[in-house]
Write a structure and sequence with these properties.
Elements lengths: L14 H10 L3 H8 L9 E4 L5 E4 L5 E3 L22 E4 L7 E3 L29 H10 L7 H8 L7 H9 L7 H11 L11 H21 L13 H11 L19 H20 L13 E4 L12 H6 L1 E5 L11 E2 L7 E3 L3 E4 L9 E4 L16 H6 L3 E2 L4 H7 L11
Antiparallel strand pairs: 1-2, 2-5, 3-4, 6-7, 8-9, 10-11, 11-12
Helix pairs in contact: 1-2, 6-7, 6-9, 7-9
């Protein structure tokens, strides 16, 4: 099947040149000029300098397509590339790609959310629904001046903005005849909508909420979808549920597995609350005080070649690490996502966290998810993991003098004679 990708254009793109140019730019104009050489894959790039300027670019070779599939924007679905009527007409000029410099808001947020309201050029349709971006914007707007410590705390924020929409609906379900489930429902009444990993009231409420959410999407969608399209509880499913909540009699609420019965919204919500209560009772005990999000929201670090968490063999034990309890979730600033169809174990998380103080570069901080060495027997293989998981960070000196003063080890690379 014919396939075309900007990264394999002829003549070849100059993406490598662009990366060097972005790294050495001293002004936003130079930064933007360097990005004109960037071909693929398309990126969201943020900019800041010591003079107080901030900027955003979305560089990449974006094709102008000749046609679109009916009912979908051009490029949304695969096209019959062997037919010339579907050929690319051109590449979107760099001047027409989204960019910003010193916006009026005083900050820029890029969290996989839609970057422009304009439909053209077509940059994609599968954007994050914006829960994380909205929360980041809210936190940035709390004060005229934020310190590096404030920014580090922002990166650790575990507030679930989506829960603010669903929890009131769950609390509206009448469980007066089901005291066992009502006991768990009460956790949501005082929940501050944060998702810590520790053993606390908020953590117990978080794990119950996500157990309910998992059961809710299963009961609403999976009875009407093939196995390979089962709901994972991600952004699309959150958006779908928000719309369905406004339509209590929608046919999606009906469980097709119950012959002769037509369920409505409140019945599915009641069932999800009760099933989640039973699920957590089996896995963590009947007392809600023993529940915590960190017991099930676990990060497994598996080596991509030699590791396998399902294998108890010696090689896997040498290379793999974990599981590690972590806070956060799929729709929060601390993005430790999970797939609701497979449980609550982490499927993606920040590989590193960086806070740069452009007023004092030597005061910047940094932490890796694992460590600096890829050698499983090296002391720096995973020596940053505990700090990363607990929300800490290490000093990241910038100037030559500060680097020399902070160094505890030195590696010297000598060319082979």
């Amino acid at each position: 099947m014919p396939c075309r990708w900007p990264g394999r254009a002829s003549p070849p793109g100059r993406t490598a040149d662009a990366i060097f140019g972005l790294s050495t730019a001293t002004t936003f104009a130079e930064f933007r000029a360097a990005a004109t050489n960037y071909a693929a894959p398309a990126l969201s790039v943020v900019y800041a300098d010591v003079h107080g300027h901030i900027g955003y670019l979305a560089p990449g070779s974006i094709p102008v397509r000749s046609a679109a599939t009916a009912g979908a924007p051009a490029g949304y679905v695969p096209a019959p590339g062997w037919q010339s009527t579907w050929d690319w007409r051109d590449i979107v000029p760099n001047a027409e790609l989204p960019w910003a410099l010193d916006p009026q808001e005083g900050f820029i947020v890029a969290a996989n959310n839609k970057v422009t309201p304009l439909p053209s050029p077509y940059l994609g349709s599968d954007w994050d629904t914006g829960w994380r971006a909205a929360r980041i914007s809210q936190l940035l707007a709390t004060g005229p001046k934020l310190t590096p410590a404030d920014m580090n705390r922002l990166q650790q924020d575990t507030f679930d903005a989506f829960a603010r929409t669903l929890v009131p609906v769950l609390l509206g379900v009448d469980l007066s005849l089901d005291g066992f489930t009502e006991e768990a429902q009460r956790l949501l009444r005082s929940w501050d909508l944060t998702t810590p990993a520790d053993r606390s009231d908020a953590s117990a409420a978080a794990v119950y909420f996500y157990a309910v959410w998992s059961r809710l999407v299963q009961g609403t969608f999976d009875d009407q979808l093939p196995a390979d399209l089962r709901s994972d509880g991600g952004p699309r499913w959150r958006q779908a549920v928000i719309r369905l909540l406004e339509d209590p009699a929608n046919l999606w609420w009906d469980d097709k597995r119950t012959s002769g019965v037509v369920e409505n919204r409140d019945e599915i919500l009641h069932r999800a609350l009760a099933q989640a209560r039973l699920d957590l009772t089996r896995s963590m005990g009947s007392s809600t005080s023993s529940w915590s999000w960190g017991k099930v929201h676990l990060l497994d670090l598996s080596h991509p070649v030699l590791g396998d968490r399902s294998d108890a063999g010696l090689v896997a034990r040498l290379f793999d690490r974990g599981p590690v309890p972590v806070a956060g979730g799929s729709a929060v600033v601390l993005a430790t996502a999970f797939d609701a169809s497979m449980g609550f174990r982490v499927i993606s998380a920040p590989a590193a966290r960086l806070v740069v103080d452009l007023g004092d570069l030597d005061a910047s901080t940094w932490v890796l998810q694992t460590g600096q060495s890829g050698h499983a027997g090296h002391p720096h293989y995973v020596d940053q993991l505990d700090t990363w998981a607990s929300g800490g960070a290490f000093a990241w000196p910038f100037s030559a003098a500060s680097v020399t003063a902070a160094a505890s080890e030195r590696i010297t690379l000598v060319p082979k004679p």
